[in-house]
Amino acid sequence: MSETTQNLKKHGEEAVERLETFRDELKLKAHLGRKEAEEGWQKTERFLNTLINKIRNFVNKLEGGVEETELQLHLGLMEAKANWDAFEKLLSESLSEFRAEAENLEGKLDLARVRAHLAKMEAKDFIESQRNRFKEKLTGLKAEVDANSSTLLDDIRKSVEAIANALPK
Prior knowledge:
This protein is an all-alpha fold.
């Protein structure tokens, strides 16, 4: 294999590796995004897979002849260039949607934190008011028991005196 062919093969393999990495990163981001981003990812993935396959075919054909390979490479690059603007727009839209969704989720998370804090404060206030209510009720019941026991003791004392007076001396 000539040095030019080896260089072309090396650059083709590097391009495939970078595109596969890029494709996998986008796939991860799409997985984390919304349903609309998934549809965008599917279009992007088809485009990247087509491009990867064309470059792989190019690399595989390198051994078959440099001229044909150069032609295939040139055609593949022209097609990639023609589709690049659409791909770049799709990627930009997807990233914008990801950012908007992230900001939306961040806002919802902040709201949930505020609501949780308010609920906690309301629970503390409720518990404190119930504690005070029970404390007042307990104090009232204690005073009632004290008053009733005092009356009961007086009644018992009077009954014992009456029995004692009724007994023969």
